[in-house]
Amino acid sequence: MATKRSFRVLDGAMGSALRDRGVRVPSSFTSVWSAASLIEAPKEVTQLHEDYIKAGADIITTNNYMVTRTALSRAGWENRIEELTVKACQYAIQARTAAGAKEVKIAGSIPPLTNSYQTRNGLEKSETEKQYKEIADIVAQYVDILLCETQPEALEASIAAKAASVHGKPVWVAFTLEDDFALDAAANKLAPVLRSGQSLEYALKNLEGINNLEAVLVNCSDPETCTLAVKEISKLISQDGNVNLDKNIEVGWYSNARPTSDAFKREKEEDGDKRPVEPEFDEKMFASQASDALANGATIVGGCCGTTPEHIKHISKLKQG
Parallel, antiparallel, or unpaired: how do β-strands 300-303 and 8-9 relate? Predict the structure, then answer.
């Protein structure tokens, strides 16, 4: 008899999954990405959340990625940040209620302030702190977990986490990684690194002393790179060494189901309303990647760009061994 496995399942993509369902999702580089759906397609957003719950997700994430002042200014919506963030939270709550799944947790997205993968946001530190505080203060009123996600740079991630930490709720921080290994100068070896080129050890050290830090994750990167990063993070946290974090902090994995750099290059070159690159990993292949992540120390697994409720359904089946 197969041994049951204990882990938590995070949901999958919103933007790319909404596109798959025919919802207009404009470019994340020149427009507002899935933030448009909060106004134009609320039923579809709520239904997608509910479908992730039905697929076995233990945690769903609010659809306010790109609901930042910089991104919203592209549509002249910068003064609608509170309205749209609240809508994102409410749609997730409505989906949980409709699914009759009180046990499901809602993670409030605290996204990078400018473009995905942009390693310098161009803002003064005080302005970065102000904007992250604004987002965290809004989502904290509605959610169970504060998820600082797709963070490409260690300092910005720590600023986001500090803004989240004052609310007395679990704080999760997810780093996005270079898809190809880079030279970790400090360790003098090829290893997974942040989009900024910073080492995982450096990123973790920047999270030291942050209250309510419950999990460190990797996301929005190649599956295999994410798995190797999970292994490295688990090692850095569990061993006595240069990283001074609680050894009970969880490690999470929610990778893309496609080659990240190629997908974003294509989207940048094309009209933003067109479909992105098709996923490289089908549901079974992706679940196999998630299984590898679990074997290497992850206790939270889910999906990012290119994933759907079907991907999450196959991950959830891993609980049966």
Answer: parallel
The Cα 88–Cα 38 span in angstroms is 7
Q: Give the bridge partners for 59, in sequence order.
A: 10, 105
For residue 206, the Cα-to-chain-centroid distance in whole angstroms is 19
Domains (range + CATH), the chain: 27-320 (3.20.20.330)
The reported pLDDT for the residue numbered 2 is 45
Q: What is the CA radius of gyration of the chain?
A: 18
**226 is annotated as contributing to ligand binding:** no
Per-residue pLDDT at 183: 52
Amino acid 269: pLDDT:
43
* Each residue's pLDDT tens digit, 67-110: 999 999 989 999 999 999 999 999 999 999 999 999 999 999 99
pLDDT at 116: 81
pLDDT of residue 273: 46
Closest CA to 287 of 308, 265, 267: 308
pTM: 0.92
Q: Residue 314: CB partners within 8 Å, gap ≥ 6?
A: 283, 284, 286, 287
Name all contacts of 179-182 with Cβ < 8 Å and 24+ positions apart.
179/221, 179/222, 179/225, 179/259, 179/260, 179/261, 180/225, 181/225
DSSP 253: E
Cβ 314 vs Cβ 22: under 8 Å: no
- Mean pLDDT, rounded, for 266-276: 47
Distances (CA, A) of 271 to 4, 27, 65, 94, 310: 45, 7, 20, 32, 27
